[in-house]
C-alpha cells in the first residue's frame, strides 16, 4: 500500500513461480558493503542523479549486490569498478526503457554507437558534456588501465551486445509489434549484457582463457544458455516494473502470451518450462566441459554458475523490482520477493525445443 491506495495487482500473479537452480547459492563477495559505500560515493561525486528521487531509484537497482553476488570471490578493486559500471549502465538502461517520446530507435542507436566509440577511443569527443559523460570518461580511463587488450575487446563486445539488444527491443516497441518466440530467443537476450558482466568475472578472478577456448562453439553455447536463463528470470522479476507500457514490453512472458494468444499469467508456466529446459542443457553441457578441465577453464565454468544463481538472489532483494516505480513514488526500503526453489525442473525432457535459434546449443552437448 502507498498513500492509502492499493497497489495495482500483477498480471502474472501475486507469487513468482519456483526457481529450479541446483547451483551453489547465496554467495556474496566479502567486500560487498565496502564496494557499495565506495560506489555510492563515486556516483555522488559525479552528480550522476539530478535529484534525490532519481538517486533513490538509481540506488534501488542494488547494483553493488548484483556485482558482488555474481562475483562472490576475486579482486575487490575489479569488483568495485564493475559495480560502478553497473550503476552507470542501469541509469542508461532506465532511459532506454522509459517509454519517453524522445527514446526512439534512432536515439538509442545513435547513443549506442557514440558510447561504443568512446569505449574504444576515449578521446573521441562524441558524447555531450554532462555528469553522465564525465562519469563514463572516468570509467573508461580506469578500465583501459586495468584490462588487457584482449579483456578490453571482450568488454567492448559485451557492451555492443547490450546496446544492439536495447536498440532491437526499442524498434519492436516503436513498430508496435511483438516478435516471434524464435526471434526473441535469438535477439532479445542481448540486452541482458551477459558478456558485459562475464568479462568482469574473469578479470576479478584473474582467469585468462586463450581465445580459441573462450570462443569455441561449446563454450559460446554455454554462455548463451546462461544468458537466456538470466534473461528469463529477469523477465519474471521485472514484469511488474514495465507492465504499464503500451505496446507491451518485449519480454519472454509477453512474447509467449502473444504467440499462444493467452493472458500473461497463463504464459508464465510456458516461459518457466522453456527456461528450465535451457538450464538443464546448461548443467549438462557445463558438466561435459568441466570433465578434465584445467584450472582456468574450471574457474570460468564456476563463474557461469555464480552468474545464474547470483542473479536470482540479487533480483529477489532489489527494490527496483520488488517495489516498482510504476506503483510507488519511492522505492520501499527492504522490499523483496519471497522466492521458492524447485527441486526438479518443470520440464524434465532433454530434447531441444522446436526453436531454430536454440538448436545450435543442443548440438554442442555431444559435439
Question: Could you outline the blueprint of secondary structure elements for this entry?
Answer:
Layout (H helix, E strand, L loop, with lengths): L18 E2 L11 H15 L5 H8 L3 H8 L5 H21 L8 H16 L10 H16 L2 H27 L5 H7 L6 H12 L5 H4 L2 H21 L14 H9 L3 H27 L4 H23 L1 H4 L18 E2 L13 H8 L4
Parallel strand pairs: 1-2
Number of strand elements = 2
Strand order of the largest sheet: 1-2
Helix count, DSSP H or I runs of 4 or more residues:
16
Shape: globular
Report the biggest beta sheet as strand number plus sense, adding barrel if it closes.
2 strands, parallel
As a whole number of angstroms, the C-alpha radius of gyration is 20 Å
The separation of the N and C termini measures 53 Å
Order of helices and strands: EHHHHHHHHHHHHHHHEH
Into which percentage range does the β-strand content fall? under 5%
Helix content: 55-70%
Q: List low-confidence stretches.
A: none
On the 0 to 100 scale, the average pLDDT is: 94
Overall SS class: mainly alpha
